[in-house]
Amino acid sequence: MLYIYIYIYIYNIVRCGGSKVNLRPPIISTDSRFLLCASGDLVKVYSTRTEEWLHSLQGHTNQVTGIALNPANHLQVYSCSVDGTVKLWDFIDGILIKTFIIGYPLFAIYVSEKHEGVLFLHVSMATDSKNECFQLVAVHLPKSAEQEVEAKEMSVVSSHISSNPSCTAFGRGGEYIAFARHLQLNVYFFRKQKTCSFSLKATDKKGAKNAFTCIACHPTDDCIATGHEDGKIRLWRNFIHKKEYTYSTQHWHHNAVNTLCFTPEGTHLLSGGIESVLVQWQYGAGNRKEFLPRLGGSILHISVSSDGQLFCTSHSDNKITVIESSFKVCGVIQGLVKGDGVLTDLMIDPRSKALVLNGKPGHLQFYSLLRDKHLYNLDIVQQEYIYEAGLDQFEVVKAAFDIKGSWLATVEERGQKSSDLEFFLKLWAFDERTQSFVLNTTITAAHTDRIISMCFSSSKETTMLVTIAEDGQFKAWCQGADADTQQDQNFWSCDFVGSYHNLKPTNCSFSADSSLLAVSFQEVITIWSPETWEMLTTLCQPPGVIRDLCFGRLSCSKYLLGTTTRNLLCCWNLLTCALEWSSSVEVSKLQPDPLSENVAAFSYQSKHTDVFVFKPSEPRPLFTNKNVCSEKVHRAVFVPREEPLNNCDESSQWLNRSQLYFLTQNMDLLTFSTATEEDRILSSSKQLVIDDSVAVTPFYLLLGKHGQQQQKLNTQSHPAADKPQQPQGSVTIKELLHTPAHVLPAASVLCSMFVNSLLISNTGVQQDPLREEMDSEKEEEDSEEEMEACDSQQELRVQGSVDEVTLKLSKAQERELKRVRKTDFSWMAGLIDSKP
Amino acid sequence: MGEFKVHRVRFFDYMPSGIRALAFNQDTERMAVARMDGSVEVFHCSDRFFQEKIIPGREQFGIEGLSWVGERLFSAGLNGGITEYDLTNQKVKYTIDAYGGPIWTIAGNQQGTHLAVGCEDGTVKLFEVNEDNIQFERNLDRQKSRIVSLSWHPSGSKIAAGMMDMIQVFNVETGHSMHRMLADRGVGTSRSKECVVWSVVYLSDGTIITGDSVGMVKLWDDQTGTLIKSHNVTKCDVLALSVSQNEDSLVAGTSEGIVVQFQFVSMVLGKDDKEWVRTRTFRNHTHDIRAVAEITTAVVSGGMDAQLVVRPLLDKIEERSAASALRKIHFPHRRLVACARKSGLMLFQYPGHLELWRLGESEGKGIPGSSLFVKRNPEKLLHLKVKGEDHIRCSAVSPCGEWIVYSTASTLRLYRLHCDNNNISITKISKLPKVLSSANQLCFSSDSSHLFSASAQSSVHLVSISQSGCKFVGTLKPKSGSHQAIHLLAASEDGKWVASANSDHEVHIYNLQTRKAHCTVPIYSSAVTAMGIHPATNCLFMMHADQQMFEYSIEQKQYTDWSRTVQRKGLHRLWVERDTPCLNVMFNPQNPSHVILHDMYMLCIIDQSLPLPDDKTQFYNQLTLKSLTEEQRKSHSHAFKVCKTFKDILCVELMPDQSLVVVERPLEDIATQLPAPIKQKKFAT
User: Using one digit for the tens of pLDDT, what is the confidence trace for A298-328?
Assistant: First the structure.
């Protein structure tokens, strides 16, 4: 169950967002304004109202495994991590207050008001990590003013607990703690220092699985609710007695209950499981219950705000849903969906520059890597997905974009396990009006057997799709060739069917200018001319079936690269039709950079993955990185940068034009970053510490918001700035507000001053704030795409860089000027875009 | 173990009658059960729920309520009468009319001074319980609708009565109504149907708990007459409620066949503010549960599906043992089948009639386990209806097949069967001796020349029967002991001895030649469920309800060595943990060391010549033995050889031709003859 991330940090491999937000239950702050969740080695803070990611608490060096509000101060949060530390944060300002070093990997944290200064932690005993020996320990926090304190005072509450952190919960007012493991429920009473344990039979006659899956304790009554493998919920009472304990059973879930949660008043019990239905049971009223169905992936955690007004559920599709207590969904925070596996390649949507891969079942997701935000899902299968284990349902297995991003081809299939395979090839056209992909053609029997691979031709004039399948054929599909359909609508139809000695094709690739198509048939590569469908040549191969194929780009376009199953990387010269060079290396993924000659090869050897970046023209790699990660890499993609870096460093030059992202088998999305980039990320995150401590007053709403926005703009447009610029207009207001009331002049005098302060801006170019506010409002009404364009700092940068890349102004003032201009320009661009 | 030809008899269409009411007596640990056919049974709760007493019912005698007053048992029914039972002689003592129309409920107060009945005409009638009868005292305030349920406050000063749509609380002193509480009707279509308060329980702290036809269990406060809490238990009716002795647990039976337990637990541990919380659910019935009772360590429930279910409450049990297992009682613990061994006739006893069948014949020989070709089908010879309204209490057929006798509560009839070729005729023997007016148990001697009739005061009347007529020979009386009714009789093969067992666990042996009591077997703590006298050794073999077995040598007036060995070594755990009593003891004349026993689930042959198993040996070793060689078998075999081929056995009898008659009544067949249960939606159907 528990995912433990172990990252080996080599100077420039970073995990680039998309980490799980559903690992641990999220927390809603006491005022219900913020939602905190552990995500990778960060704690992310979201707004509950807008679902926007506000900032993150950065400092742990490993997976954050638990967060809990400080019971003594509701503006502080504790977080624990596998790196063995507990950190106390001010989550509104994002300030690290204290670090407690525990020294063991931590897996969950529990706090209670009754036990002040004591944290209860799930600790894995390092000596016994294989046996999953988890202990529940109470750690007394030392009272010291230092930033980093070692917490040594520990006492073990239980030495054998379940690895599932939802199997532990504090009881009424922290009087006792209940924890379950397999078939045993233990209750430890702090006052008596005594553990009562109750066990269930392994299975009863009907074959029910009785193992505990989660626990929740009633806030005011002595009642423990436990969820079980077979979907039952038991309410335990009277558990102070060894014998006279009693429980009642309720059964609605048909599969394991993943999570249980009582509302703060204790009037309701919430439960969730694989059905993705949130069930609200009325406490004490037996079977009365309410349902909130169709929430998405199966529910993993439920948490409730302290006033009981908001619920939030985290789902297996890396999503957090915010739900009002009236059972209405009011917000969704979607992370990068990582299902059981990514079947499609990692792709970049040429239009939105978003990463495209399998999302929730039957969908393709579009994910902005820059903003670490899920953009949208494209429903490919267009069928209701049934959340039940063991059902064979349609999955998107292949997808490909053409070079302009106006066409998308997808393959969905069902019945991989059974013999009766069903699959559809679908072609989607980008609709400018709706700004999304619209289904154009569905081909039901594109091939007689499974489609192995497909690619679009890369020429700008005609679009052609080539599919290869296990039936030994490759087919070329063209648009609108069908004479029967008189209409203007251009459907796709088959243009050419090719095969080679009935061999099974393994891969296909178009050359950069689409003048050549390479299709590999087992050990033979055939080169075709798409113009005439004439086989030009065959390249035969030393032993081994061809696995990957790619053409060189730009100056290396005369080269064709291929990898074989027999650990060979070969490079042919297409002019001479001869093998240029070959090298014996086991390559699991070959990924060419579309913007340069570079090709990245991932090689999996002796339980770790190495990366080589090379140019086909020279067999010496440009860059080598050993031991990138410990898992095999099958998916990788080069993401073009919006703004090329000018790095002179030899080893990182290949990253100048595009960035390499890759997905490990553990579904971690990793990337290489340069040192300068990291600096920038750090500095920008510092700036995001926004002065949010101003009380919410009408003035704040009027000015504070505006100021904040401006501040945001500042930081966005000026990433290297050391300090956030104060909004000019609000200085007077601040002065005004900070002056004691009895020394203030009359209101009529102040009024003009106030209005003036709003109207006049110090710099000539600065727009007056009111209009800006208006603009921003207008913009919010615009389409999503444009909003992204305005919010994203990178977007701004690229637009600014169009005309001023070569500016060599380095002084701070000049840069300021540049920033101001860029800001202006982007606003204008936004407005102009929105006009038509 | 030996080979037997088996007559697998499945034409005995016995239908147990549904359970209508339960009453538990805490002091004597007896559970009284009233069935739909008007019969009342008494089970001994601490003796493995052995059915000690059966009082057969009558036609048109529906019982609606049962109540213990001290050790006296009263019932009331829709015929409008209140009946007291004579438990010693297992018959109705008297019935008096309450003059209030059909009676729906009866309740005695804890002090044992008064009985209250609820009548159709809306009155609650109080009866004073006197030494040997009951006397009408007065009516409480008359209501408009019928009284469906009643419950006394433990102090005896207040009565809560459940009616149509409401609950009334009466002050017993004044007879006036103190509170009137309205029960809500259901919502939707059931709005127009009135809400029947099927059951009411009055607790000592003044809480009144009701179960009604809307499916709610409601808690009321009798001080203010207000609803405290209501639990929705089911969509259909809550038919029965019962509270434990210390009032911390309540069980409710519903018409869906589930029993729901509520417990009075403190919501905050260590504090006294307790609440009634729904806890466990027991699903053991398929049909309506008409009666529940919470006894000290278990929940007993019974209903339309005619089974009595004893569900142990594990939290109340000190240690888990065979006595604390889930128990389902389907069949009576008496023999309903008599067998004329010499002529191959079977007599089946139904409540209202007798059936006589001739066994079929088969041809050829088969391999063990296979079925043989039936040459002649079994044949129903006789269908004998009972005269009068009473149901049959006991019946017997003589070994020669010439005589049939049955007894009801009021009459005993003896018939002679004439059987020439295919013509069957019976003649009733008139002029029976006066002592044969009624019998608790009947038995013929092995040569069919005498009839033993157990009657009042634990005495056995001896009557000689012959073609000329029937002559009273004498009465066998125990020297001392109780006057409880005899429920088992066993005559020896040689006609010398007869043994009787009564419900006080006494076993008396009489010498038939001297017609005097010979001796009394030492009294064991558990009831005798079956006994037989060995034809060769004249040892009395007794099975008890707690599965212990004794062999008593009549001639030597002491337990045999084998019996002492059994007691010393103890029986195997699996044997003791069986939950149905043995109902017959037979002996194989060809192999004198074999004793054949049966209960509802199995047939067992005890080979007294083989060593007894201890707890370490494999008890059910038939399959293991099969795989072993002849040599090894000897070391592995033990005295108990169990055959589980047959299920739901009513009777097993060994015929002289070494064939076994096994009368089965499959429970599935009973289930198909029951009315359809309430339709329930099942998940994934």
Answer: 899 999 998 889 999 998 888 899 999 888 8
For chain A, say whether B680 makes contact (Cβ under 8 Å).
Answer: no
A91 shares its domain with A235:
no
Residues A138 and A181 in one domain: no
| Domain end among A288, A314, A335 | A335
Same domain, A214 and A146: no
Q: Phi then psi for A487, rounded to 5 degrees?
A: -70, 170
For residue A86, being part of any structural domain is answered with: yes
CB contacts, 8 Å: A247 with chain B: 279-280
Domain that holds residue A230: 168-335
Domain match, A147 and A172 both: no
User: Are A22 and A316 a contacting pair, CB within 8 Å?
Assistant: yes
Asked if A178 and A292 sit in the same domain, the reply is yes
Asked whether the CA dihedral B129, B133, B139, B143 is positive or negative, the reply is positive
pLDDT tens-digit readout, A382-422: 887 776 667 778 888 889 888 888 889 999 888 766 677 88
Mutate to test the interface with B, among A204, A248, A288 (most CBs of B within 10 A): A248
Determine, yes or no, domain membership for A737.
Answer: no
**CATH number of the domain bearing residue A34:** 2.130.10.10
Based on the fold, state whether residues A183 and A328 are members of the same structural domain: yes
Chain B hits for A230, CB-CB cut-off 8 Å, are none
Calculate the CA A528 to chain-centre distance: 40
Q: What is the dihedral of CA B263, B268, B271, B275, to 10 degrees?
A: -30
Assess whether A206 and A252 both reside in one domain: yes
Q: Indicate yes or no: CB of B683 within 8 angstroms of CB of A220.
A: no
Pairing of strands B516-521, B497-502: unpaired
A79 located within any domain: yes
d(CA A575, CA B122): 111
Tell me which chain B residues have a C-beta less than 8 angstroms from the C-beta of A222.
266-269
- Measuring CA to CA, how many Å separate A696 from each of A43, A704, A747, A801, B94? 25, 9, 22, 38, 87
Q: Which residue in B215, B218, B168, B213 sits closest to B193, CA to CA?
A: B213
Distance from CA of A7 to the nearest CA of B (A): 45
Q: What's the DSSP call for residue B322?
A: G
Q: In what side-by-side order are the strands of the sheet with A363-368?
A: A347-348, A355-358, A363-368, A373-379
State whether B279 and A248 contact (CB < 8 Å).
yes
CA distance A279 to A297: 15
Going by the DSSP 8-state scheme, the letter that residue B101 receives in this structure is: S
Residues B385-428 pLDDT 10s: 998 889 999 999 999 888 999 999 888 999 998 877 778 888 89
* Alpha-helical segments (H) within A688-811: 698-699, 705-717, 730-738, 747-759, 769-781, 784-791, 793-804
A chain contacts of residue B232, beta-carbon cutoff 8 Å: 285-288
Co-location of A191 and A294 in the same domain: yes
* Closest among B568, B441, B575, B422 to B502, alpha carbons compared: B441
Element (H, E) at B7: strand B5-9
* Prediction pTM value: 0.76
Closest chain A residue to B319, measured at CA: A243
Domain tally, chain A: 2
In a domain, A71, yes or no: yes
Judged by DSSP in three states, B345 sits in: strand
Residue that finishes a domain, picked among A104, A128, A161: A161
